[in-house]
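Query structure, 127 tokens:
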């Protein structure tokens, strides 16, 4: 994963290079997966902006929303004694379950879950 700057849209983006040699899916299935990911529109799922193939290199370049929060594992590791307070753990789980439910309703199984630390930037769900 690489951080890049999109001059046209004036924003930072994450760029992922998928190598068809390293990917467990065929190039055709990889393209189907990318098309499915483009359709996902949910506040707790990273947005995929575009993708394009590099056939000579057997690669697909995927351009996505950049989320500076990091991964859930890193967040957990940063906590004293690796303990996440219950209210934060609850909000994280609600975000994850909401995103997974959305995907499952579209008949999509998401195999690469990430965490965006937005706990302080919005009010928790009232459940």
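Result returned for the query:
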């Amino acid at each position: 994963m690489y951080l890049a700057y999109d001059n046209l849209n004036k924003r930072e983006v994450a760029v992922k290079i998928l190598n068809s040699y390293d990917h467990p899916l065929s190039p055709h299935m990889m393209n189907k997966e990318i098309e499915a990911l483009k359709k996902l529109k949910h506040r707790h799922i990273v947005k995929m902006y575009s993708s394009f193939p590099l056939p000579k290199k057997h690669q697909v370049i995927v351009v996505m929303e950049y989320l500076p929060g990091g991964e859930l594992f890193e967040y957990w590791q940063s906590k004293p004694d690796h303990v996440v307070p219950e209210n934060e753990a609850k909000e994280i789980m609600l975000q994850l379950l909401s995103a997974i439910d959305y995907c499952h309703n579209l008949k999509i199984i998401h195999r690469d879950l990430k965490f965006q630390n937005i706990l302080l930037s919005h009010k928790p769900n009232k459940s």
